[in-house]
């Protein structure tokens, strides 16, 4: 075997002969060249910050499985959203933790114009009018069984749930929501919400569809955050997508777009990069992902134990979503990411 390293012979051929002089490391040799040819970039404009709101004053509750994330009363939430706006975060997504006594089989409290979710929209819009507000019209935070729709004799009834979700969407829009993001996965809910918004003068309110929400094990900490942990009767596999399926996800997204969705979302995020890529490639519409509570908790836990560099893993996980085709990402890391980006 020829090992004449002095004249760069390795075997029968030199590296230049093997690669036809195409040395791909040339543009990796320096920071300036790596930055110049970088294909995907993460900016503060890509961030949507999910927050949890509760009744009361000057109170926040730590969520054990999500270090650094809290349920907040409106006064504290408004202050945090003001800080988010100063960091340049363009939008927030609000989620309520409802008192147990207000939850019932149908989630009827979602139709109260003065529920905590609607009060949060009004307070935030008044204090921070420049930030976008995204609300979810699904019923799970309002039901006593933890499902996203109305439960009748062990079955989530689709059409009755859709009617209530559409009515709730109108109340949310009237309270100041800029985007309605129904996460329930009921058939026909996007078209029903669009019709209801338009009929009530909210033609400018957009819909971000949780078009491909999978039956995932990564949602656990979120259910603690909104107070549905331990409530769920059965599971959600009759309406969430089987995580083994990608063609089904395509059909769901296509249907939601046909019904009037302005944007689509993939949930969870990192385990479903293939879905993000397929959707963006097929439909070329604004496409988002939700980096869910379980994804957040894993990075936080590993970082706290010194097993990974938390900031680097956080940034890499989000950039992967951008590379796959995301136009934006819902992430509990949003303020932390915004601060890291501002220091670069």
From TrEMBL:
It is an enzyme of class 4 (lyase). Gene3D superfamilies: Aldolase class I (3.20.20.70). Pfam families: ALAD (PF00490). One of its GO terms (molecular function) is zinc ion binding. The active site is at 213 (schiff-base intermediate with substrate), 267 (schiff-base intermediate with substrate). Belongs to the ALAD family. This is Delta-aminolevulinic acid dehydratase. It comes from Nitratireductor arenosus. The lineage of its organism: Bacteria, Pseudomonadati, Pseudomonadota, Alphaproteobacteria, Hyphomicrobiales. The gene is hemB.
């Amino acid at each position: 075997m020829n090992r004449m390293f002095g004249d760069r012979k390795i075997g029968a051929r030199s590296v230049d002969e093997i690669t036809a002089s195409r040395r791909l490391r040339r543009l990796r040799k320096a920071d300036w060249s790596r930055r110049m040819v970088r294909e995907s970039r993460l900016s503060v404009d890509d961030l949507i910050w999910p927050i949890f709101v509760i009744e009361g004053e000057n109170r926040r509750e730590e969520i054990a499985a999500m270090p650094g994330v809290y349920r907040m009363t409106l006064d504290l939430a408004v202050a945090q959203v003001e800080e988010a706006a100063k960091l340049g975060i363009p939008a927030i997504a609000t989620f309520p933790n409802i008192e147990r006594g207000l939850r019932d089989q149908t989630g009827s409290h979602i139709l109260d114009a003065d529920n905590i979710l609607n009060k949060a929209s009004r307070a935030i819009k008044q204090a921070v009018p420049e930030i976008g507000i995204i609300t979810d019209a699904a019923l799970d935070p309002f039901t006593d069984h933890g499902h996203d729709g109305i439960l009748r004799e062990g079955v989530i009834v689709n059409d009755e749930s859709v009617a209530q979700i559409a009515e709730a969407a109108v109340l949310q829009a009237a309270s100041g929501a800029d985007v309605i993001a129904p996460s329930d996965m009921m058939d026909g809910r996007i078209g029903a919400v669009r019709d209801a918004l338009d009929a009530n003068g909210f033609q400018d309110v957009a819909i971000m569809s949780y078009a491909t929400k999978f039956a995932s094990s990564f949602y656990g900490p979120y259910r603690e955050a909104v107070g549905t942990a331990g409530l769920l009767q059965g599971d959600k596999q009759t309406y969430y997508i089987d995580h083994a399926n990608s063609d089904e996800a395509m059909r769901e997204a296509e249907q939601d777009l046909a019904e009037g969705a302005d944007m689509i979302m993939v949930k969870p995020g990192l385990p479903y990069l293939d879905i993000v890529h397929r959707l963006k490639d097929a439909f070329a519409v604004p496409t988002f992902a939700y980096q869910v509570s379980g994804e957040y908790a894993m990075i936080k836990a590993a970082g706290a134990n010194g097993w990974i560099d938390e900031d680097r893993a956080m940034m890499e996980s989000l950039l992967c979503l951008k590379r796959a085709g995301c136009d934006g990402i819902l992430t509990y890391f949003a303020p932390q990411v915004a601060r890291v980006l501002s220091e670069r």
